[in-house]
């Protein structure tokens, strides 16, 4: 399902490779995740993106960097845990 906010997504801009948000290496400090976080960090719809993924993501199929968070970080958020302090600041993502 396509929703209008997705049209404003930074990851949907021309030239952006959607695959870069689904790296094989999901090391939270790795280059691939850091690169994806940088894009999410300037995305004007990050808030709604995060709300959408938190409401709709299948825990058994959690993958990729979405709204600047890795699958493990989203799982932590689902469990009601506060994300580690360094996770978002190091990305430049505003909470
Ligand atoms: S926050 Fe990231 S994954 Fe979500 S729409 Fe924006 S760029 Fe895409």
Following the backbone from N to C, one meets helices and strands in this order, namely: HHH
Q: Main beta sheet, described?
A: none
Chemical compounds bound to the protein: iron/sulfur cluster
How confident is the prediction overall: mean pLDDT? 87
Give the strand tally: 0
- How many domains is the backbone divided into? 1
Radius of gyration: 12 Å
Q: Helicity level, as a percent range?
A: 25-40%
Q: What structural category characterises the helix and strand content? A: mainly alpha
| Tally of separate helices | 3
Gap between N and C termini: 26 Å
What does the overall shape look like?
Answer: globular
Percent range for β-strand residues: under 5%
Low-confidence spans: 86-95
Keywords:
binds iron/sulfur cluster, disordered C terminus, 32% helix, single chain, 3 helices, 95 residues
In short:
This protein has 3 helices and no strands. The chain is mainly alpha-helical and 95 residues long. It is globular and about 35 Å long.
């Amino acid at each position: 399902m396509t929703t209008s906010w997705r049209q404003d997504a930074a990851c949907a801009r021309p030239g952006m490779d959607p695959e870069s948000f689904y790296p094989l290496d999901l090391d939270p400090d790795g280059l691939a995740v850091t690169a994806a976080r940088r894009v999410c960090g300037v995305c004007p719809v990050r808030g709604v993106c995060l709300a959408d993924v938190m409401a709709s993501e299948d825990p058994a199929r959690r993958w990729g960097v979405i709204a600047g968070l890795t699958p493990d970080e989203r799982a932590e958020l689902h469990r009601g845990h506060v994300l580690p302090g360094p996770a978002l600041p190091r990305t430049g993502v505003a909470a």
